[in-house]
Specification:
Number of domains: 2
Strand order of the largest sheet: 1-2-3-4-7-8-6-5
Largest sheet: 8 strands, mixed, barrel
């Protein structure tokens, strides 16, 4: 029997439909007219229920409780990690784009310096060229042109006037073309350009202990491996034998105008503690036996050093060259 909430009297009513149960006081049967209001003779009586408020299902109540439940500890941790991740991603992008902007600034500076070096007849001492009407350029001179040595010496004087640490100019084919400086330590030019600007691209610089410059038996020169592929970045490609064979020569023009040619004979991936650095600085007499594949008759060596990208902080690429 189904239980229902009762009428206004509050009594519970039990109704069994479809029966001929008589009145307990001896009255007419239930199926006679007048004894069961709202029914007709011969028809089954219908239950007359009073509308009641039904109870919400348990699932709805649980959903409401879940909706009002405070954040769990796990949710807070995930949200915190997401915020930290976004922060570090933004910081990384800032560093990358900041480096690229600085590389572009350094590239512009060194392009102007290259213009001074490769156009020795240029009649101006401005690093930042003004409109063409105020500057006079001569055609670039070949090495065998008449008077080139005198003009080249004047150009070196001009570069030295821009930076008293200037020691010479290095050219390797079309991939490296920079002035070389030597500071009072090996820190200054890590983040300072030739013109003295604060920049992560820095400069190409000689070890500060080489007081004789390019006349040292072993001369070590450092440069950054930048994001934009400038400075000493191309040195990494010398780890490929085919690239070494197609780009073997290094041209050096010293501060006093002399031209030196070195030939690259080896390149290696190593670290900052390689014995080659020690040999170059304090035991240069062992260069022929320590440097890989060194020509036995070589009298002077050039050692080019740069870092790697993606490796450890101490990882280095060394390129070895001998004076021809």
């Amino acid at each position: 029997m189904r239980k229902l909430f009762g009428t206004k009297s509050g009594k519970k009513t039990g109704i069994r439909s479809g029966t001929n149960q008589g009145n307990k006081t001896g009255g007419k049967p239930d199926n006679e007219p007048g004894n069961n209001p709202g029914t007709e003779s011969g028809k089954k009586p219908e239950a007359n229920y009073t509308a009641t408020t039904e109870r919400k299902p348990d699932t709805v109540v649980k959903q409401n409780k879940k909706r009002n439940r405070p954040l769990r500890r796990g949710h807070i941790i995930y949200a915190s990690l997401a915020i930290v991740g976004v922060f570090f991603a933004a910081a990384a992008l800032r560093v990358i784009f900041g480096d690229l902007l600085e590389d572009a600034s350094a590239y512009s500076e060194y392009e102007q310096l290259s213009d001074i070096f490769h156009n020795p007849g240029r009649q101006t001492q401005n690093l930042n060229p003004t409109p063409a009407a105020n500057n006079t350029y001569l055609d670039p001179l070949e090495d065998d042109a008449e008077g080139v040595d005198d003009l080249r010496a004047l150009t070196m004087d001009e570069l030295a006037a821009l930076n008293r640490d200037f020691k010479g100019w290095m050219t390797i084919g079309s991939i490296i073309d920079y002035p070389v400086v030597r500071g009072n330590d090996n820190s200054k030019y890590l983040n300072t350009t030739f013109m003295g600007s604060r920049n992560t691209a820095g400069a190409i610089f000689m070890d500060y202990r080489h007081i004789n410059g390019f006349d040292e038996q072993v001369c070590i020169i450092y440069g950054h491996n930048t994001r934009d592929g400038s400075m000493f970045s191309p040195l990494v490609r010398y780890l490929e034998p085919a690239f070494l064979q197609s780009n073997p020569n290094i041209s050096i023009t010293t501060r006093d105008g002399r031209k030196l040619t070195y030939r690259i004979f080896a390149a290696t991936l190593t670290d900052a503690w390689d014995i080659a650095y020690t040999v170059g600085l304090s035991d240069s007499g062992r260069a022929n036996e320590v440097f890989p594949n060194a020509p036995q008759n070589a009298s002077r060596f050039l050692l080019l050093s740069t870092c790697t990208r993606g490796g450890s902080d101490d990882e280095r690429v060394l390129v070895f060259a001998a004076l021809v």
